[in-house]
Amino acid sequence: MARKTITTGKSSDGWQLFEAEAQYAESIFRNALGDIEASIAAAQRALEIKPNYAPAVLTMGSIEYQRGRETKGRRLFHSLLSLPDESGDLWQVIDEAGSFLIQSKRYGEALDIYKGAVSRFPVRADIYQGLGCCAGHQGLFDEAVAAARKALDLEPDRQDLTNDLGWSLFQAGRLREAEQVLLRAVAMDATDDLARENLRHCQAAVSKR
User: Can you tell me the distance from the alpha carbon of 129 to that of 193, in angstroms, rounded to the nearest whole number?
Assistant: First the structure.
């Protein structure tokens, strides 16, 4: 992250950003040492210094979820959607929040995050990828296909997005379309075990029909 020019006034946004970044770096350092309590304390200080510092919001939100304080975690994650994009990478922080929820199998909550994010970041393929993943897990297969197709339109050379579209089509019961897309995904990367397995499932379903 590029650091902005810092002014010396302690009430300035520049000072807050500098101090928040310093505390967050301390949090990462302490976590690497295995000192989890000190790491959490530093992340909390970063958030207190600059409440709209997105990395600290993400970290404390995930910690609240892990502590079983789901309401606080959800509130922090949703606040990301309205934060200023000072560094230009807010979409990545939001995607990390969505990925955390997906890994926790909180697909409905992650879907809400991604739906809020696509209106603000309509040209980020990874946001549509997350939306499609969550929609598929929620049984919203047509929505998953639409999201996967949009992601691939944005970055047509990405093999993982090609595989995602193929699987979304398979889940939607559009087997012939799915087979063609998955064949393309395998051709793009023959070493991708997931794409090959998805193609195998699809072709087995096609043969049964």
Answer: 19
Of the chain, the end-to-end C-alpha distance in Å amounts to 52
What is d(CA 201, CA 209) in angstroms, rounded to the nearest whole number? Answer: 13
Residue 101, sorted as left (phi over 0), alpha (psi -120 to 50) or beta, turns out to be alpha
Cβ neighbours of 119 (radius 10 Å): 9
Average pLDDT over every residue of 136-151: 98
CA distance 93 to 53: 11
Angle at 123 between CA 61 and CA 76, to 5 degrees: 10
CA 51 vs CA 19, 31, 119, 144, 207: distances in Å: 12, 21, 23, 34, 56
Q: What is the pLDDT of residues 76-121, one digit of tens each?
A: 999 999 999 988 999 999 999 999 999 999 999 999 999 999 999 9
1-7: average pLDDT: 37
Long-range contacts of 172-175 (CB under 8 A, 24+ apart): 172/141, 172/142, 172/144, 172/145, 173/141, 174/145, 175/202, 175/205, 175/206, 175/209
Longest dimension (CA), the chain: 71
